[in-house]
Amino acid sequence: MAFQSRMKVRPNPSPVPADKRQASLESPSFGKVFTDHMAVIHWNAVVGWHDGSVRARTPFQLDPACAVLHYAQEIFEGMKAYKAASGEVVLFRPQENARRFARSAQRMAMPELPEDLFLHAVQTLVETDLAWIPDGDGSLYLRPFMFASEAFLGVRPADEYIFCVIACSVGPYFKGGAKPIKVWISDSLTRAAPGGTGAAKCGGNYAASLLAQAEASHEGCDQVVFLDAVENLWIEELGGMNLFFVMDDGTVVTPPLGGTILPGITRDSVITLARDRGLVVEERPFSLAEWKSTAANGTLCEAFACGTAAAIAPIGEVRSKVGSFAIGRGEIGPLTAALRNELTNLQRGIEPDRHGWLLKV
Ligand SMILES: *Cc1c(COP(=O)(O)O)cnc(C)c1O
């Protein structure tokens, strides 16, 4: 049966009082200030998608045998709603999130949520929680996700799922300008193998990355860089951001998508914006050895990571067990800064939307 009705909106009978909400929007820390509502749609093998609603954000009741708690059948997305310069609220390329969510579902043997239903759920939640979008540099971070909710310990794709979207108010990722981050090269822990789930946005990939991320923090680094799982030579990506390298002749290099890297929407946008500037963008394997030697001889002048949460984060130092090397002079490089400005201005409707990337809510 096809999903017939629109999302029912059942307003939260006891929302956070306006003064308390306003206070929590002053300087929200990431992932802690949640809105009053959530969008929920159920799926089962008999009726398909059904019972879609936006309602008060409350805990789920899960059976202890709930499949996701045992076999990790779970996928998610990360996207933002921005208050544009005009006062309108916009989403940045949300159709791409809907498409990627469907691809992730396919890889994890989960039912695909139709793209228009994904967008409808996200938009309805944003409309309902408009008051939670901070002014200025902040935004509303949206977290669509889906998990296997069937109570069954047998190992097979579940036949019940819950799709949900929650939202949280977030401030700017970098307060007071983008400061270069330090990254740690993991020499033994890998994130994704050929044939695995590296290209799907699933919670399991993150679980697998946490030990390396903890090692990075222990080494005084902000993020971990994963190398390929086969040869341990090639740069893949960070735990949750894609990587770019800027050469002194203006060439921009980024590792190719080949199943072990998450196809970031920010990555795709950066490639487009760099090509718009007339730059050559190469999607090609880039080794740690090449990164180190080109940083040393000056042919590599900038490196940055990108993703929805941080937009573009410059990399200032690369550390590993066999030594460290610096990128640039301790501040954001000129191309990184220009792309970052352009991207964040596009997301807020300050630059003209020449690629049709914004969707008004
Ligand atoms: C989400 C994610 C990214 C960035 O994707 P965007 O669409 O740009 O936010 C990069 N790498 C991993 C592993 C991710 O999960």
Can you walk through the features of this model?
This protein is α+β, with helices and mostly antiparallel strands and 361 residues long. It is 25% helix and 29% strand. The protein has two domains: 8-170, Aminotransferase class 4, branched-chain amino acid transferase, N-terminal domain (D-amino Acid Aminotransferase, Chain A, domain 1, 2-Layer Sandwich), CATH 3.30.470.10; 181-347, Alpha-Beta Barrel (D-amino Acid Aminotransferase, Chain A, domain 2). The strands form two sheets. Strands 1, 2, 3, 4, 5, 6, 7, 8 and 18 form a nine-stranded mixed sheet that branches. Strands 9, 10, 11, 12, 13, 14, 15, 16 and 17 form a nine-stranded mixed sheet that branches. It is built from eight helices and 18 strands. The longest helix is centred in the middle third of the chain and has 16 residues, at 203-218. It has helices at 18-24, 67-71, 94-107, 115-128, 203-218, 265-276, 288-297, 334-347, and strands at residues 8-9, 37-44, 48-56, 74-76, 79-83, 89-92, 139-148, 160-170, 181-185, 223-227, 235-238, 242-247, 252-254, 281-283, 300-307, 311-320, 323-326, 358-360. Helix 3 crosses helix 4 (115-128). A hairpin with a 4-residue loop joins strand 12 (242-247) and strand 13 (252-254). Residues 78, 201, 237, 240-242, 262, 264-267, 307-308 line the site of pyridoxal-5'-phosphate. Pyridoxal-5'-phosphate (PLP) binds next to helix 6.
